[in-house]
Amino acid sequence: MTRYSFHPLILCVLGLSIVGLFHRLYKDPIGLFSQLLFMIVFASIIFFLVKKFLAHKHSNSTNYGSHQPQPKRMNFKTSNGSKIVPQKNKKETKKIPRPLVKKRTEVNLTVIEGKKNKKKNRALF
Q1: Share in percent of the chain as helix, strand, coil (round to 5)
Q2: What is the number of structural domains in the chain?
Q3: 42 is in which domain, residue-wise?
Q4: What is the mean predicted confidence (pLDDT) over 31-39?
């Protein structure tokens, strides 16, 4: 058995389209190429319009954080123009990671009394 199996109707449509393509190529090659050129131009115009207008809407959410951070500005003190002394950096406190606690909901399970061993009649459903 083949890995990809197609529906026979789809195979018939594809086969007829290939036969029609070769028939048009034999009878009217200039019309076929002009139609293909028109389809390529139309598809490329739609592609660039979609890329231009829809890409800007999604660019802010997808590219968030992808830019490189700019270096921090350091305040330099100059004395007599010969020495450059960097300003002392503030010590950063380390944050202790807290484990995520998932809120668990209690499930209320009830037992329904009845005939447990009786088989259901599936024809009624």
Answers
A1: 45, 5, 50
A2: 1
A3: 13-57
A4: 94
